[in-house]
Amino acid sequence: MGRDPRYDILFEPVKIGPVTARNRFYQVPHCNGMGYRDPTALARMRGVKAEGGWAVVCTEQVEFHHTSEITPFIELRMFDDQDIPMLARMTDAVHEHGSLAGIELCYNGMVLFNAKTGQVEALLLDNGYLTDLRTAAAGAVAAKWLAREDARRVGVVGAGVQARLQVKALALVRDLAEVRVWARDAEKAANYAAEMTEDLQIPVSVSASIEAAAAESDILVTTTPSKSPLVFASALHSGLHITAMGSDAEYKNELDPPVLADCDLYACDRRSQCEILGELHHALAAGAVSAETVVPELGEIIAGRVPGRSGPDDVTVCDLTGAGVQDTAIATLAFQRSQDKGAGTVFTS
Fold first, then answer.
1. What predicted TM-score, i.e. pTM, was given to this entire model?
2. From the CB of residue 93, how many other CB atoms can be counted at a distance below 10 Å?
3. Which of 158, 162, 192, 141 is nearest to 298 (CA)?
């Protein structure tokens, strides 16, 4: 069977060049996995002051539903006097909930382009592995900057791939002493506890409820595709940090909206995206947070532009929906490592 014409956009060439006042944005093929394609997103793209130079790519997430219009895009932004050599495009054409009859499932891969010439530098057939790693790394960065310095107890909601990787990444930024896991599937939770106890060499146990896991944790990580809230404001306690990374689509929701209203600091990876996809989207819709509420981005906190945690008793929340620039960073690193080791296959034409 030939390729469905609705996917032709995935195979169009990428246009990259100097940013000018007239061509600030290019509509280019892109799919970033589990996000949601908002028909009005293009109208909300933030403008870029064009003063010459080259652009680095920040992607909006999209998802291919069988009922969705396939019109993904990439937003270009200016970085003054910086040489941004690479950009990555994810190629996840269809996932398990949006596959079309007669079209085989296509899992994640990345195409790495030279940002100045548009030429393909590498094809990374990672099946989503690199995205899994960068998602876990983002969670660790959030905890590094927002969790208490002495945070050692971790609660995890979910028992899948991210539940494992998030905790392993956390162990790189905090000296973990114990982990508690809750999952809907008790058998998966038990298997998780056994595997992670061996991997981390610290006690990992199963909690009877999310509330019980949160009560005994300094850091709570939610890693599920839940469509309804799992963590409620009653679970908040002094000093707790929550990293919520499961809500990467409009219909997903792990935190009850009052959680965002009751915490001392709510931050996100990218506000414009979280307003559409993340926990912020649901809090705004519920009226728990107003559109005028100041919501710092994690990058702003790291750069020192806005304050983060102000003291050990603060309750902090970080909402991670996934940023395409992270894919570019990890794809570039993977490409460089493969070159250093002489790995991979070189194609010439």
1. 0.71
2. 26
3. 141
Using CB atoms within 10 Å of the CB of residue 117, give its burial: 0 to 12 exposed, 13 to 18 middle, 19+ buried: exposed
Tokens of 61: 């997430």
Q: Which two tokens stand for residue 141?
A: 């960065």
Beta bridge partners of 231: 255
Question: Which candidate, 84, 190, 139, places its Cα nearest to that of 319?
Answer: 139
Listed by start position, the domains of the chain span 1-127, 133-321
The tokens for 182 are 């809750």
CATH architecture of 133-321: 3-Layer(aba) Sandwich (3.40)
* Residue 122 structure tokens: 């590498």
User: In 10 A of CB 228, how many CB atoms?
Assistant: 10
3-class secondary-structure state, position 75: strand
Residues 67-115: pLDDT tens digits? 233 333 333 332 333 444 555 555 443 334 333 334 444 456 788 888 7
Calpha distance 291→144 (Å, rounded): 28
User: What is the distance in angstroms between the CA of the first residue and the CA of the last residue of the chain?
Assistant: 27
Cβ contact 251:227 at 8 Å: yes
Contact (Cβ atoms closer than 8 angstroms) between residue 114 and residue 107: no
Cα three-residue angle 19-20-26, rounded to 5 degrees: 55
Q: What's the residue count for the chain?
A: 349
Residue 50 pLDDT level (bands cut at 50, 70, 90): very low
pLDDT bracket for residue 39 (50, 70, 90):
very low
